[in-house]
Amino acid sequence: MLFADPASEGLMARKVILDVDPGIDDAIALCLALFDPRLEVVAITAVGGNCSPANATRNVQAIIEQLDPPRWPRLGAASPPDAGLPVNGRHLHGVDGLAGVEFEVAELHHLHPSEKVICDQVRGAPEASITIVALGPLTNIARAFQRDPELPSLVGEIVMMGGTVAGPGNITPAAEFNMYCDPGSAQAVFRSRSTKTLIPLDVTNRLVLSFDLLNRLPDEATRVGRFLRTILPPAFRGYRQRFGLEGIHVHDSVALTAVTEPELFSTEEMAGDVETMGELTTGMTIFDRRRVPSWRNNMEVATEMQVGAVTEAIIRGMNDAARRPKLP
Ligand code: BDR
Ligand code: CA
C-alpha cells in the first residue's frame, strides 16, 4: 500500500498536542497518532490518572522508545492534581498503567512540566493552529490556562475524551473516570473560553473491540505490532475479569478518530459543566438540555458515531502505523 504524504499533496498535517495518562487505551491512541500523516504530534504531555503522575511520565517515554516514531515530539512531565488522585485505573490497566509489563526506559530525561510544554507549544505556533487532544484528566490543561490566561483563546480546539451526557459513569454511578480524577480542573476547562469538543462515554462505550482483533494486529516483527501484541492480551483479560466482557473499550482511540475522521461522528452544541462537590455526584458532567436552557452553549458534544467505520479506522490505523516508513 502506498501512503499519502500530506506535505507532497499540498495538505497540511494538523498540529496536535496529545495529553495522556497511559493507560492501555491511551497507548493505542499514541500508536495511531504518531504515525498518522494527517497529524503532526508536536508534543505529548503526561498526566496522572490511570496511573500515578510519575508512572504516566515514565510510560510516555517508554512508549516513544518502543515505537520510535519518525519524529519524536516534545514530552512533558505529569505532576499530581491539587487534591491528589482519588482513584487509579489499575483494575484495567495494570499496576504500572501499561499492563504490568514495566517496559525498559533506556534514557529517562528530565522533562519540563506538562503545563509549561503546552503553553510553550501553543504560544510558539501560529494562533489557533494547535489542537489539544485530551485523553486523561484535565489537570494539565487547567494549569496551562491558569499559567497563561490568554491561552484558551490561542488554542485552535480542545478535543476531550470524558464525561457522560445521559448514560451512567464508569468509575462511580454518576462520573466518568477522567472527570472524576480531577473535577476542579475539568470544571475550569469546561468554563474556559476555548473551543471545545467532547467525546463522551455514551459514544465511546458503543465500540467494543472483540477478541479476534488479536488476529488482525500488525506483525510481531514490527515495533508497533510487538508493542500492541504485548499490551493488548492483558487488557482483554482485565475486561473479562472486571466486566465479564469478551472485548475491550478503546475510548481514547475513538476520541482520536473524531479528530482524524470527524465525518464518522455527529455532534450537537451543548452547555456543559462539571459537579465538583456532590456527595454522590462529584465528577458528574451536567448538560442544560431543558426546553428553554439558561446556560450558554460552550462545546460540541459527540452524540452519534458510525461504529463499524470507526472500528475499521482504528484497526487500519494500527496496521498502517506498523508499515509506515521511517523518514529519510
Ligand atoms: C477514560 O478513562 C481512562 O481509564 C481511559 O484511558 C479513558 O481515557 C475512559 O473513561
Ligand atoms: Ca486515558
Labels describing this entry:
single chain; 328 residues; alpha/beta; Inosine-uridine Nucleoside N-ribohydrolase, Chain A; 8-stranded mixed β-sheet; two-stranded antiparallel sheet; 12 strands; 17% strand; globular; binds beta-D-ribofuranose; binds calcium ion
Set out the fold topology:
Blueprint: E1 14-20, H1 24-34, E2 39-46, H2 53-67, E3 74-76, H3 90-93, H4 114-124, E4 130-134, H5 139-147, H6 151-154, E5 157-161, H7 177-181, H8 183-191, E6 196-199, H9 201-204, E7 209-210, H10 223-243, E8 247-248, H11 251-260, E9 265-270, E10 272-274, E11 285-287, E12 299-305, H12 307-323
Parallel strand pairs: 1-2, 1-4, 2-3, 4-5, 5-6, 6-12
Antiparallel strand pairs: 7-8, 9-12, 10-11
Beta-D-ribofuranose (BDR) binds next to α1, α7 and α11.
What do these coordinates show?
The protein has 328 residues and is α/β, with parallel strands linked by helices. It has one domain (6-323): Ribonucleoside hydrolase-like (Inosine-uridine Nucleoside N-ribohydrolase, Chain A, Alpha-Beta Complex), CATH 3.90.245.10. It has helices at 24-34, 53-67, 90-93, 114-124, 139-147, 151-154, 177-181, 183-191, 201-204, 223-243, 251-260, 307-323, and strands at 14-20, 39-46, 74-76, 130-134, 157-161, 196-199, 209-210, 247-248, 265-270, 272-274, 285-287, 299-305. Helix 2 (53-67) links the parallel strand 2 (39-46) and strand 3. The longest helix is centred in the C-terminal third of the chain and has 21 residues, at 223-243. The radius of gyration is 18 Å and the shape is globular. Beta-D-ribofuranose binds next to helix 1, helix 7 and helix 11. Residues 23, 25-26, 50, 89, 135-136, 161, 170, 176-178, 201, 251-252 line the site of beta-D-ribofuranose (BDR).
